[in-house]
């Protein structure tokens, strides 16, 4: 077997792996039937669908020839580190880590940190644009989650909100 498109082949394998993991994880819940679905039904079906799509992409990558073989490029470490770091910072700032003495800073601070850290992943950084984006995201998130959905979580740091 000769791989004719490396990008498609390995992305298909990734889809099959993630889909298989979701399907396997869903078996820990009650599946139910199509007419009476349990909590594991949707993730199981979604995982199976993702694995099937991955299998189709993987098989197609061994059949369809591409111009240059579609080699896999270098890893983009900078975006990977900053985007993952932004999500970790968001989680820590939103809820805090009480066991380490890190207090919850709330939704607004977490969104600003997420936006500024993630924007460092790109090749250009324009502070004013990032600030405007963070403000729009913070206001929109506050309106959607706190005002509209009435979710209960810290919005502001405890030393400000009391």
Automatic annotation (TrEMBL):
Cited InterPro entries: DUF1468
Residue span, DUF1468 domain: 10-154
Positions of transmembrane segments: 9-29, 41-63, 75-94, 100-121, 128-149
Pfam family, one: TctB
Keywords from the UniProt entry: Membrane, Transmembrane, Transmembrane helix
Keyword match Transmembrane: yes
Membrane listed as a keyword: yes
Entry superkingdom: Bacteria
Protein name: Tripartite tricarboxylate transporter TctB family protein
């Amino acid at each position: 077997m000769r791989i004719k498109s490396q990008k498609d082949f390995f992305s298909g394998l990734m889809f099959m792996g993630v889909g298989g993991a979701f399907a396997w994880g869903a078996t820990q819940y009650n599946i139910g039937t199509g007419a009476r679905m349990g909590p594991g039904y949707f993730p199981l079906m979604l995982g199976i669908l993702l694995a099937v799509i991955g299998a189709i992409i993987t098989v197609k990558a061994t059949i369809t020839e591409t111009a240059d073989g579609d080699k896999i490029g270098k890893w983009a470490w900078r975006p990977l580190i900053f985007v993952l770091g932004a999500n970790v910072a968001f989680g820590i700032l939103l809820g805090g880590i009480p066991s380490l003495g890190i207090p919850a800073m709330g939704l607004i601070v977490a969104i600003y940190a997420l936006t500024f850290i993630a924007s460092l992943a790109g090749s250009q950084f324009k502070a004013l644009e990032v600030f405007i984006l963070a403000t729009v995201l913070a206001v929109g998130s506050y309106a959607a989650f706190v005002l509209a959905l009435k979710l209960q979580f810290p919005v502001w740091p405890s030393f400000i909100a009391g």
